[in-house]
Amino acid sequence: MSELPDFHSAIVYLINADSARATLPFQRANRAEQYATAFWFNELVRETAEGAVIRQYLVTAGEPTRVETAEITLRQELCSPAMSAEKVAMTGFAEGWIHLGDLGVAVMPDTALYAYAARKGWSWTTDEITDGVAATEEDIAALDGTPVPAYLLGHPVDAENGAREQALVVGEIVRTDEDEIRWLGTLPQGCVGAPVFIGAGLGENSFTLVCVGVALPGEGPHPIATFDRIRAALLTVAPERRDLAPDVTVAATAAAVPQPGSVEPKRRWWRRRG
């Protein structure tokens, strides 16, 4: 594993600082299969004088959600007060997801998740991928046939004990001749459904962090469902289903952008070899 340049170190820092509590590993309960990663996303509905009106979802690849009972690993930093149990089982899991057309992506409105926590006597303390970070059509159009460094925040499966610690997997994405965005190389088991980031250059030594989309199952280079298409699909969700994700107003906050190389990453990361 080689050292990343300062530019990359700054991207790693921003992902960890803003999104470390956004991901959640799950699998089919009582079976060593259907391992995946989900993450929280705030869909921007409108801007008001009081702040941004958002709807919140858990987002992942669609195929792993098609299980009746799922086992979810709850990291202590996601719960207040911290849960004594690391794993919980959710029955009726498949019924809680809305599949977004043929994108291969599923979303779960936050209502059921917050209700579950309330029944158990705790509350969620998460980060979210915000609408401002999620890729726009312009961000996706800027990608071409040249590989771009990319960063996936997921929960690989430890081959020895099955643990699902968070890791930042470093690789590349590229636009193919079929006009698809794909992750070059293989993904560790358990990272399907995870968010994929890039640092989009703004000139000189500046960049903006962009969440390109969701890593999907596939043979060879994994396809990525991009956020421009996810946004469009969310607009078609039936109103009665969207009501399950009530509008929430959140005040705008400002975050300082770190200087490259100024802070060490908080999470372990892997660089995909050649």
Relevant terms:
alpha+beta, about 270 residues, 8-stranded antiparallel β-sheet, globular, Thrombin, subunit H
Look at the structure and give the mean pLDDT.
Answer: 83
Q: Any low-confidence stretches, pLDDT <50, length ≥5? A: 246-274
Order of helix and strand elements from N to C terminus: HEEEEEEEEHEHEEEEEEHHEE
| CATH topology description | Thrombin, subunit H
Strand content: 35-45%
CATH architecture grouping: Beta Barrel
Describe the protein's topology.
Layout: H1 6-19, E1 23-28, E2 36-48, E3 51-61, E4 69-73, E5 79-80, E6 87-91, E7 98-99, E8 105-109, H2 110-120, E9 123-124, H3 137-141, E10 148-154, E11 167-175, E12 181-184, E13 195-203, E14 206-215, E15 222-226, H4 227-234, H5 239-242, E16 248-250, E17 269-271
Parallel strand pairs: 11-17
Antiparallel strand pairs: 1-2, 1-4, 2-3, 3-8, 3-16, 4-6, 5-9, 7-8, 10-11, 10-13, 11-12, 12-15, 13-14, 14-15
